[in-house]
Amino acid sequence: MASLMTRIKLWFRSPQGQQARARAEQLARDPRNKQRARGLMAKFRGGGKRH
Question: How many angstroms from the chain centroid is the CA of residue 34?
Fold first, then answer.
């Protein structure tokens, strides 16, 4: 059985994987999504706590 990493690599080379990657890159460039990601990271690090 192929290792998980090998299977992931093969999927990313498939047309569906390439479409998913392109969509993820497009979403990553969106400033609103960047702000959401920063907020989530701050929350997980404890920077979003309010007492």
Answer: 11
